[in-house]
Design goal:
It is a single chain. This protein is an alpha+beta fold. 36% of the residues lie in helices and 19% in strands. Strands 1, 4, 6, 7, 8, 11, 12, 13, 18, 19 and 20 form an eleven-stranded mixed β-sheet that branches. Strands 2-3-10-9 form a four-stranded mixed β-sheet, with no helix packed on it. A hairpin with a 2-residue loop joins β18 (483-490) and β19 (493-504). Mean pLDDT is 90; it is low at 1-26.
Length: 707
């Protein structure tokens, strides 16, 4: 095992540093990028210098990582929370790391003027509330992640050092997330291409957001602590993904490997995919919220179109300002030139926030008048030379919104908590008339080619929002910002595959050692034990089931339900259960009481219990030793009259029914079997094997029809 400094590994994990050495910056595309942003599907990934890596976050099916509380979710809405669940309110602030720097993302979050209300669920204790020190790493969770590392041919870190990752959005009560690098240098193969696995980490999940509401003192965000501290594995790949479609296939492959351990949580929200995307004329952007794998190619292509659009927009703005153009490859950027452009942009777009509450007091817009009545202000900023550059809502050939600066400005403003903005390229609209626009332009003293932005919100919030707008407008003279973005969600699904800004891309200053958790040594013996107990892969499990006498549908359902180990155990174990009947039983009744279910299927197969008794006896049984369960079920079957009738009794019952319904049989033929089955079973009190009844009934009907 190779030893690395934890800080070295963290600092090295970035989109840029992970570039394969073969990708010399000067060998990447330097020609002016070609492509129609209204047709994202037609964009050439190779020609545009596309690069992509994935970060997969998967919840583990173990106890919480540092508190040992149950990993359990309480699917309750805010108004459904019991009154006796305690609540606490806190404010968080950014702090300097050990290097003396404050993380840029943390600093931004602090300025949003937010308070956080925490709902203490039954599985949240003092550690979740940050009122007691954390415990060491959960041993089971560590073993699960080591197993994942082995399945990806990664190298374990000999000494696991927990780190604190600064988080100031309130999702962690402590203000940081605990994360531990477990392994590095792995590799998987997807579509005949090698994908490097840079880091495999074990970390705490965050609290679940329930609600956000405004108050006189700013925003209040409500979190449930049920999810906080759940163990997550994070798998970060190298930027080896070859295309948007390859990204989807890579996500599928990684998810399958993690599930192969059979120690991960299943269900909606248990796995999350983040995409690190760039093209040569853009820069690295991290996209979160890619829950539906089928959307990944479209989300990536729309991001490529967005980066291409804003590269072209930057050069249009630079040309108008007589500034040097951006080169088509970010690796050719000149720091002195970019500093010059930044200075020019700051002078062209000064941060001057103007209060238009009085001049626009008679505005007929219902949105504006209602907001002003509730104490909001109408603030504005000038954007000199931006008229026509903000854009209006238009769509590509697939129905997704085309990228436009106005939407980016709105996205920046919303980070301050406002509902949105009004900008001059879209006005008059929303109840804002031509005369209102004229009033605003006159009061702002604008030239013909100048634009403006209005924000209606409480004064402090509108001010922060417009500061974000000005910063984003200045950024328009440069390449797109390195930032974290969220997929736009509507009714729980991606709206159209477009994204919105979430926060600046975190820097290295957000990480520092966790001093409350001891370093965990991964011994050679522990690693060898992991290697000796690797689970079967999905392919191996499928091959194993293909040899069994079960249907293709049963095989697929058994694998999807992760029931194949139980299936094999029942077939090869002491009861020697028949494959088809045991598979059907597992699919129908689940795995909550596997021993009781196996005992019941066995008794049915040997003719000591009817199928009618299965459900009742399983519910009432105790999941103890198999022999004891069989003995109890046998006695109960006899006492409750659940013992199958013999063939003679079945024959007599069939003859009685056919004598009564002879005309019906001659009229319906073999179609009479279904209705007559119920009558025969009724005469037998349900105490008969349905297959045997069906066979005897079929034989006797044939005799009648052939007379």
């Amino acid at each position: 095992m190779v030893s690395y400094s934890v800080l070295e590994l963290i600092n090295s994990h970035s989109h840029e540093s992970a570039y394969p050495m073969s990708l010399d910056p000067f060998l990447r595309p330097i020609m002016e990028p070609i492509g129609d942003i209204s047709e994202p599907q037609s964009l050439d990934s190779v020609a545009l210098g596309f690069m992509c890596g994935l970060e997969i976050h998967q919840q583990l099916a173990t106890r919480k990582l540092h508190s040992r509380m149950p990993s359990e979710l309480y699917e309750l809405k805010l108004d459904e929370i019991p009154d006796d669940w305690k609540r606490s309110i806190r404010r968080l602030r950014a702090s300097e790391g050990e290097a003396g720097a404050t993380d840029v993302a943390a600093r931004f979050e602090q300025r949003r003027n937010r308070s956080f209300e925490y709902v203490q669920s039954p599985n949240a204790g003092l550690i979740e509330l940050d009122e007691a020190p954390p415990r060491d790493h959960d041993s089971e969770a560590v073993d699960v992640v080591l197993t994942m590392a082995a399945l990806m041919d990664a190298n374990p870190i000999p000494r696991l050092q927990a780190m604190r990752k600064t988080v100031v959005d309130g999702s962690n009560t402590s203000g940081f997330q605990r994360t531990t690098i477990v392994a590095t240098g792995g590799e998987i193969e997807v579509d005949s291409a090698k994908i490097g696995v840079d880091l495999i980490s074990l970390e705490e999940d965050s609290a679940r957001k329930l609600d956000t509401r405004l108050s006189d003192d700013g925003e209040i965000v409500v979190y449930n602590l049920d999810r906080l501290g759940m163990p997550l594995v994070e798998v970060a790949t190298s930027p080896d993904v070859r295309s948007p479609e390859h990204a989807k296939h890579t996500a599928i492959a990684l998810g399958r490997i993690l599930r192969d351990t059979r120690r991960v949580r299943r269900g909606l929200g248990s796995i999350r995919q983040d995409l690190n995307v760039s093209i040569a004329c853009g820069d690295r952007v991290e996209i979160k919220g890619c829950q539906d794998l089928d959307w990944i190619p479209l989300i990536i292509r729309l991001e490529m179109a967005r980066q291409l659009h804003f590269y072209r927009l930057a050069n249009r703005l630079r040309k108008n300002a007589s500034l040097p153009p951006l080169p088509p490859n970010r690796d050719l950027d000149s720091s002195p030139i970019e500093n010059r452009v930044a200075l020019s942009a700051s002078k062209r777009i000064p941060l001057e926030i103007i209060d238009l509450s009085d001049p626009l007091s008679s505005c007929e817009s219902q949105k504006i008048s209602n907001a002003v009545e509730n104490g909001s202000s109408i603030l504005a900023v000038r954007l000199p030379g931006f008229s026509g550059f903000l854009g209006s809502r238009t769509f590509d050939n697939q129905g997704a919104q085309l990228p436009r600066l106005g939407r980016e400005l709105a996205s920046a403003a919303k980070l301050a908590g406002v509902a949105g903005i009004f900008h001059s390229d879209e006005l008059p609209a929303y109840g804002i008339s031509d005369s209102d626009v004229t009033t605003a332009r006159e009061n702002l003293e604008l030239m013909e080619d100048d634009a403006f932005v209005l924000c209606v919100a409480p004064f402090w919030q509108a001010e922060l929002a417009l500061e974000s707008v000005v910063n984003r407008a200045r950024q328009a003279y440069h390449r797109i910002s390195k930032e974290v973005r969220n997929v736009v969600i509507k009714k729980g699904k991606p709206e159209d595959g477009t994204t919105t800004a979430l926060r600046p891309l975190p820097g290295g200053a957000r990480m520092y050692p966790e001093t409350d958790i001891p370093v965990l040594e991964i011994t050679k013996g522990r690693w060898e034990d992991i290697l000796g107990k690797l689970p079967l892969t999905s392919e191996e499990r499928a091959i194993r089931l293909s040899a069994l006498d079960i249907s293709a549908n049963q095989r697929e359902a058994i694998l999807n339900g992760e029931l194949d180990d139980l299936l094999i155990e029942g077939i090869e174990g002491p009861l020697q259960l028949q494959a088809r009947s045991w598979a059907s039983a597992l699919l129908d009744h689940g795995s909550e009481k596997p021993k009781s279910l196996a005992a019941a299927v066995h008794l049915i197969e040997v003719g000591k219990m009817t199928r009618d008794g299965l459900e009742k006896l399983i519910i009432e049984s105790k999941e103890e030793e198999l022999e004891a369960i069989i003995q109890w079920m046998t006695l109960e079957s006899v006492s409750r009259g659940l013992v199958p009738a013999d063939n003679n009794s079945i024959q007599l019952a069939v003859e009685e029914v056919l004598e009564e319904r002879g005309e019906y049989v001659r009229d319906k033929g073999m179609a009479a079997i279904g209705p007559l089955m119920g009558m025969v079973m009724g005469k037998l009190g349900g105490a008969a094997d349905g297959k045997i009844v069906s066979e005897i009934l079929k034989q006797n009907i044939n005799k009648i029809l052939n007379q």
